[in-house]
Amino acid sequence: MLAGKARYISNLKEGQILAFRSGESVISGKVHEIKEDMLTIQTKNGTNYIIRNSDIVWVKTGQRWPKGVFRALKGEIEDEQQSD
Prior knowledge:
Elements: H1 5-10, E1 17-22, E2 25-35, E3 38-42, E4 48-52, E5 56-59, H2 67-74
Antiparallel strand pairs: 1-2, 1-5, 2-3, 3-4
C-alpha cells in the first residue's frame, strides 16, 4: 500500500490541482494530460508545463493548501534557524 503523497500521485486525474517545482520556484496548476510519469500542467494564466511525478510538491485535496506549501507558492522562504 502506498503512503502519503505517493498515493495521491498514483491516483491523479485530469482536472486536479497540484503544486510543483519549476526550477527554484513552486507553482500551482491543473492537470491537463497524464502520460506514464509525465504530466502536462496548465497554470491559471494558460502557461503549460511538462513535469515529472518527482516534481510534484503537493496534490490539493481540500479547500486550502498546507501552510508550508502555501508559503512556497507565495515565494516566502522559511528560515531553518532563527537569529536572536
